[in-house]
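Customer escalation, tier 2.

The customer says the design service returned an amino acid string that "doesn't look like it belongs to this structure." They asked us to rerun it and document both sides in this ticket. The original structure tokens are below, unchanged.
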């Protein structure tokens, strides 16, 4: 078994409870970790024997394009889609951070992290 992590994916998207966030958009960061059996790929050195990082990234990118009010909803969609599209993935953690959120104070980000498994 291996844990594979795609760190610091950056997106400009339209998620938020405030109408202005959904119209103007803002910056988000996504970190995703998944567990899969890589033993065959470790020996074969063939991408067909593992889960492609590019394919996982494309799933995250597609889900980030669909606006949601809550980060919790986006994270759930990403996790469900990774588990659905990649049967070899047994477990996934999705962390989505909204950078510079409009909360009336100075902060770097707010984040939601979910864990899902089969």
């Amino acid at each position: 078994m291996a844990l594979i992590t795609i760190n610091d994916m950056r997106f400009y998207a339209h998620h938020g409870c405030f109408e202005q966030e959904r119209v103007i958009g803002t910056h988000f960061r996504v970190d995703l970790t998944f567990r899969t059996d890589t033993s065959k790929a470790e020996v074969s050195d063939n991408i067909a024997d593992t889960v492609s990082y590019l394919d996982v990234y494309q799933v995250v990118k597609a889900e980030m394009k669909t606006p949601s009010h809550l980060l919790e909803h986006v994270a759930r969609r990403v996790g469900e889609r990774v588990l659905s599209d990649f049967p070899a993935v047994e477990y996934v953690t999705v962390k989505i951070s909204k950078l510079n959120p409009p909360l009336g104070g100075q902060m770097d980000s707010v984040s939601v992290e979910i864990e899902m498994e089969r």
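Tier 2 assessment: The sequence is consistent with the input. The chain has one domain: 2-117. The first strand starts at residue 2 and ends at 13. Sent an explanation to the customer and offered a walkthrough call.
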